[in-house]
Amino acid sequence: MTIKDIQKLAYEHGLLLTEDIRFNEMGVDFKVGFAIDDKGQRWLLRIPRRDDMGEQIDLEKKILQLVKKYLSVQVPDWKIISPGLIAYPLIKEKPALTVDAETSHVVWNMAKDSPKYILSLAKALKQLHDIPEEAALKNHLKVMRPYDLRPEVDHQLQMVKSELGISRELESRYKKWLDDDTLWPDFTQFVHGDLYAGHVLTSEDGTVAGIIDWSTAHIGDPAIDFSGHMTVFGEESLKKLIKIYEDTGGRSWDKLFEHAVERAAASALAYGYFALKTNDNHHIMGAKAQLGIL
């Protein structure tokens, strides 16, 4: 889509944009744009990449309406919601990290080792995980019980192995993880589902100010929200995050760290399953590379 196309689309929804529009092509489900309207207000635009996004958009709308009642950090305030365009006033703070679209290099928008990041993230996680299950049920969100967690991963493993393939090393690791009763939680909580530094907005000193991209939120395995931190910051930082989370009253178990490490290792499996669902060749090839078969 050209700048003129975007302006026309926005105008059809009552939003007058200047030509000051730039894009971030990294989004999987949405083309993301940053724009300024005729009054100087900055906007974030999300344009669906597929025509079948209506249900997902409606679900994320419900999630945002729910989580903003419980979190002290900001979440997107959607002003325009349609199958062709989502737009909301841009939150001032930036993601902790972004990826340069041209070079694919990681750009940090805060001090990577800021102690304020882990402290404030632990607080946000505690608030997030404390969102009542009843609220999720009332909004018809996905609710998983502890006994649902392993069958879901096993289903993904069988599907990905059958349709894409998987290296013996990864398959062996995933099966060992699935078979270890000591690692898995005996409770589930409200989770973001795709939480990592690219979806966490911070001030320059690293204080968490907001969380974005809520389409995967549900009642599920709380380790999911720690695994993304592990992938970016490593094991020692994950240990610190879990310790502070527990000190603030976050519900935990003895093997949360080990389980989160395995969740992080299973990101290739989750990506493979996503690639199959979208049937997008770009994602299929990317998933095969991560699964160790290219």
In short:
With 294 residues, this protein is an alpha+beta fold.
Poorly predicted regions are none
Q: Label the structural class.
A: alpha+beta
Per CATH, which architecture of the largest domain?
A: Alpha-Beta Complex
How would a crystallographer describe the biggest sheet?
Answer: 5 strands, antiparallel
Number of domains: 2
Helical residue percent?
40-55%
CATH classification, class level of the largest domain: Alpha Beta
* Strand order across the largest sheet: 1-2-3-5-4
Shape: globular
CATH 4th-level superfamily of the largest domain? Aminoglycoside phosphotransferase (APH), C-terminal lobe
* Rg, Å, rounded: 19 Å
| Tally of alpha and pi helices | 11
Q: Encode the helix/strand succession as letters.
A: HEEEHEEEEEHHHHEEEEHHHHH
- Strand element count: 12
CATH topology of the largest domain: Aminoglycoside 3'-phosphotransferase, Chain: A, domain 2
CA-CA gap between termini: 33 Å
Quote the beta fraction.
Answer: 15-25%
Overall mean pLDDT: 93
Topology summary:
Blueprint: H1 3-12, E1 17-24, E2 30-37, E3 42-48, H2 54-67, E4 80-81, E5 86-89, E6 94-95, E7 97-99, E8 106-108, H3 115-129, H4 133-138, H5 146-163, H6 168-179, E9 189-191, E10 200-202, E11 208-211, E12 218-220, H7 224-233, H8 235-247, H9 256-265, H10 267-278, H11 281-290
Antiparallel strand pairs: 1-2, 2-3, 3-5, 4-5, 6-10, 7-8, 9-12, 10-11
Helix pairs in contact: 3-8, 5-6, 5-10, 7-8, 7-9, 10-11
